Amino acid sequence: MTQDNGTGALNQTADINALVDKKISEDADFQSSLTSLTQEEADAKIAEKKAELTKQEYSSLAEQAKKDKELAENYKIRAEKAEKAGKNTPPAEQISISDLHALRNVHDDDIAEVQEYAKFKNISIKDALNSSVIKTLIAEKEEQRKTAAATNTNSNRPRPQTASVDEVLSEASEGKLPDDPTKLAEAREAKRKTKKK
Fold first, then answer.
1. Structure pTM?
2. Contact, 3 vs 11, CB < 8 A?
3. C-alpha 1: how far from chain center
4. Which residues of the chain have pLDDT under 70?
5. Is the Cβ–Cβ distance between 23 and 53 less than 8 Å?
6. In angstroms, rounded to a whole number, what is the distance separating the alpha carbons of residues 175 and 58?
7. What secondary structure does DSSP assign to 88-128, as a single string?
8. C-alpha 117: how far from its chain's center?
9. In contact, 48 and 33? CB cutoff 8 Å
10. Residue-range domain boundaries for the chain
11. CA 8 to CA 11: how far, in whole Å?
């Protein structure tokens, strides 16, 4: 709901006058300075103080309005820049159904390279997949993935745990003999060698 400018200005003036009156009545120092004055002098002082405070309030409102206008202008500029930036982004590339069908057997890591090659050569993805360059590239990358998988598999094997000399001897003294009797003999021999040193 919008107010008529005349009514809005009157309401604003009334609000400022009420605020100024409140500030004057709450200013204890100013009120005490009026007690020694005659009524005419007090009225003149009050009028002077009202004029001063009213001028300050209008200045404050004008300054706030100026800041609000600058802020609104900045928002407008930002919105226009964002809109322009949104218009400048290229649309996403469309892939035809036949290209999708051709890419069904290509590893996910290789799809982008196939698309880039097809775009660079200005050929279809199907034609790019039939080119010797892409066939070689895909074969090399597949070999790298197989090698990496084999390497990772080998490094994840659990290593056989070798019990320490003290563990083998303590278990043997408790009646738990190792599966391989040579381990017990080696543990006893190692213990003797450490005692001699």
1. 0.36
2. yes
3. 40
4. 1-6, 8, 87-93, 153-163, 197
5. yes
6. 100
7. HSPPPPP--HHHHHHGGGS-HHHHHHHHHHHHHHT--HHHH
8. 33
9. no
10. 10-85, 97-154, 165-196
11. 5
